[in-house]
Amino acid sequence: MPVRTVRGDIDGAAAGHIQPHEHVLSRIGHAARQQGSALTTDHPITLENVYEIRRHHSRLDGTVDDVTDAVDELTWYRDAGGTTIVDATSIGLGRDPDGLVEVSERTGVHVVMGSGWYHRDYHPSGLERRSRSELAEEIVGDLTTGVGPGAMKAGLIGEIGLGWPVDPVEDRVLRAAVDAHLATGAALMIHPGRAPRAPLDAMRRVQEETSSTAKVVMSHVDRTLFTLDEMLELADTGCYLEFDLFGQESSYYPYADIDMPSDATRVRYIRALCDRGLQDRVLLSQDICFRTHLRRYGGEGYDHLLRNVVPLMLRRGFDPDDVRRLTIDNPREMLEIAP
């Protein structure tokens, strides 16, 4: 079955290594209200301040919209073995369809574009006045007709952003996204609020609309759930559990009182889930959306999962078939859209 990219559908077998939750071109720093300890200054990133900016983030840090930077970064990703990448940048986050096409053409990396809307802080003016059916129709159009004069098609619904507690407009967007998911067969990716109850709450809302949850992705499990029991309870809903913050090794989290895990801890949780028969329901990614995550600015780069995490997994008891399942088969099956 095909995977839908900004340059057209490709056979799923050609998708290779896939990172299902990244941001190739985005502006997450521009619309949000000041949160946590995020820096209010926009100092250029230098060797002298890169740690402080990476620890707290800033508006400039959250502006990852330079095509040349993206080409360089995805070239490293390609050379490390990366084949396909999902840009989960939804409307309001600085989605750039033309830019994604250029990056894909210049690197040869297949790029899957997201659709829908992020959480309330990023909603475009007037979104609150639109009906559920109107929202669903736009998402379906992104997937089937395409965006803008170039008609670049999205291949994923999401990331659909929810706060905590969930705003009524966010709820309407989520339910519209479920409608589009059912109409098109495209996967639905959810960004839950920053609370342990948020993922299950989101899935309950989805389950009110459909019993089909096999192609629903719950993002950011590794900044939201911190016990295996919580993860298993979420897995019981049938969704994918996405550990998508690999490379973010600092336990300090600037946006909420959360103690973040290390990559080694993430791998330990994933091993435990696989040992319980859930190897088909886990996804791995990095959620790169800040300049300080890019190699040019001293960060880990999109190839960190391939360069560093896969070898760690192999040392920790995963065999090559496990790794293939988690980094190739699972994301391909999630992204494939039935004709």
Number of domains: 1
- The structure class reads alpha/beta
What's the CATH class, please? Alpha Beta
Q: Any idea what the radius of gyration is? A: 18 Å
- Say which CATH homologous superfamily is assigned: Metal-dependent hydrolases
> CATH fold name, please?
TIM Barrel
Along the chain, the helix and strand elements come as EEEEHEHEHEHEHEHEHEHEHH
Keywords: Hydrolase, Metal-binding
InterPro entries: Metal_Hydrolase (IPR032466), Phosphotriesterase (IPR001559)
Organism: Pseudonocardia autotrophica
Binding site for a divalent metal cation 2: 159, 191, 220
Structural features, described:
With 339 residues, the protein is an alpha/beta fold. The chain has one domain: Metal-dependent hydrolases (TIM Barrel, Alpha-Beta Barrel). The protein is 36% helix and 14% strand. The protein is built from ten helices and twelve strands. The chain has a five-stranded parallel β-sheet with strand order 8-9-10-11-12. The protein has a three-stranded parallel β-sheet with strand order 3-6-7. Helix 2 crosses helix 3 and helix 4 crosses helix 5. The longest helix is centred in the middle third of the chain and has 17 residues. The N and C termini lie close together (7 Å). The mean pLDDT is 96. Keywords: Hydrolase, Metal-binding. Belongs to the metallo-dependent hydrolases superfamily. Phosphotriesterase family. Its cofactor is a divalent metal cation.
